[in-house]
Amino acid sequence: AQSVTQPDIHITVSEGASLELRCNYSYGATPYLFWYVQSPGQGLQLLLKYFSGDTLVQGIKGFEAEFKRSQSSFNLRKPSVHWSDAAEYFCAVGPTAGGTSYGKLTFGQGTILTVHP
Amino acid sequence: DADVTQTPRNRITKTGKRIMLECSQTKGHDRMYWYRQDPGLGLRLIYYSFDVKDINKGEISDGYSVSRQAQAKFSLSLESAIPNQTALYFCATSDPGTGGRETQYFGPGTRLLVL
Lengths: 117, 115
Prior knowledge:
The complex is a heterodimer of chains A (117) and B (115).
Chain A: E1 3-5, E2 10-14, E3 19-21, E4 24-26, E5 32-38, E6 44-50, E7 56-58, E8 64-68, E9 73-78, E10 87-94, E11 106-107, E12 111-116
Parallel strand pairs in A: 2-12
Antiparallel strand pairs in A: 1-4, 3-9, 5-6, 5-10, 7-8, 8-9, 10-11, 10-12
Chain B: E1 4-7, E2 10-13, E3 19-25, E4 31-38, E5 42-51, E6 54-57, E7 64-70, E8 73-78, E9 87-95, E10 103-106, E11 110-114
Parallel strand pairs in B: 2-11
Antiparallel strand pairs in B: 1-3, 3-8, 4-5, 4-9, 5-6, 7-8, 9-10, 9-11
């Protein structure tokens, strides 16, 4: 069964500092990976996704993530955090071709990001 | 206008009441999903539908039912609400893409409180 772990429940950074949110997955094949962001009172917005190819993926709002197969990780990064980045971030694993492709996303527990001025 | 809409956005109900949460989408996707979000647990799949005639249970379907009225509409019902169904509920839609490269798009959520 697929699973996703986000080891950090809550992270606090200062505005302008760099950010890295960790995501580790367990999956029996090459995974499809996603990062979503949930701003307070809002729905989930897709930040970026990885299907194949270049392991460094660029997303919206200046975010990027790197797929590392050897570490089963898909960490999200941003070089300089803005106050508006304060939100909850979710990593998710999706089904891949050849698997039971019924569209089930498995989500991590989420990481809450607080940004100090 | 938003591609995926959910109504109501907030709802308070009492134990034992039947309630329905509605989801509509204008993205033209065949696949639709219902998730619930609980603090510290991420999102968990309740039901999913690949087309109007195809409905499937997710990992936590007990106490819930769904109706796919049209390609664009997917409703979630709580037949007899209980307090542990208090949660944030999300609808999502997706296009299966090629080679299984599916991306899901989420609505704004419905916050439900069962007293």
